[in-house]
Amino acid sequence: MYVAVKGGAAAIESSWRLLEAQRRGSGSLAALSVSQIREQLSLAVDRVMSEGSLFDPELAALAIKQASGDLLEAIFLLRAYRTTLPRLGYALPLDTARIALLRRISAAFKEVPGGQVLGATYDYTQRLLDFALLAEDSLATQATVSTAAAQPNAGQFGVSDAASTVPRINDLLANEGLLETPLPADDAPRADLTREPLMFPADRALRLQSLARADEGWLLGMGYSTQRGYANSHPFAGEIRRGFVSVEMLPDELGFVIDIGDLEVTECQMINQFNGNRELPPQFTQGYGLAFGGGERKAMAMALVDRALRADELGEPHVAPAQDEEFVLSHGDNVEASGFVQHLKLPHYVDFQAELELVRKLRAHHAAAAQALSATPGAATPSPQELA
Q: With a threshold of 0.85, does the pTM exceed it?
């Protein structure tokens, strides 16, 4: 991202002071704490962690506070901090089949093994402003916090008791041969997009890395386009899961797997129609999405775009922008995109003066040519290209 700024040091320092005053807001109000942001703006925190490529709710909340709620700026702050961290090792692939469920739904089947778990969601709200929230006072809030603190085992989100062994919907279809069977993973090392530049062509693992940290709005637009005919996509939400999954490592010095903690994630597996080809019979294919925390919309959009980007792999024609990996992946990084757009605020005086002088000369030439033609009786009216 472009961060170069030219100008007087005193002016820049004054700008910093003004920014801090703007961030703080009225001194008559209590300062918004990082813990409040973490607990009460959790979906914003989850987005910053996903697109910042770092799971740390406290630091994500700090970045949101520092950025005055500008999520793209907070994502940039978190990514910049991430570059200072050493890599201690690589975790094993997450096994989301062993997940402590907070939410689990399927739009493809009404009855599913383990049942539907609606969980906490805005899906069933009326989307009407709740003016009662304006009346909340600090005393009521403190009482609520005290009550919650007195019941630490009540479960913050109502975790499902069915947690550990609920089968995936896609696995059930695969057992019938109706769903594509993923190729077994090889032992080749995977590229790390957080440390290496994105190169094309990109394999699916690298594409998924890029999509996981891509801007949610960009993915939403791309995913929406595939449903409106710009990729011939007819998706079904096979399963959407949200919950806590164990992160495991296999240290060489120990020789056995250890559990180092839990991550809250949202996973989406889309099911798409596929007519088959010479090698493959008609079957369902998959798109996959994963985001930190409660990033359900992000995971769904990611799954739609992932499936669209598999056109070459499945022998489908390229008919839409969402199927062009270079177009989708190169423009999905909001930090890079924001930097390239905002660099236009930097001084471009020399470039503009050159353009200004060129336009003045072209206008003078245009006026002279038009005057000469108007003095010639019977002359045809020239086109703009001819006048230029």
A: no
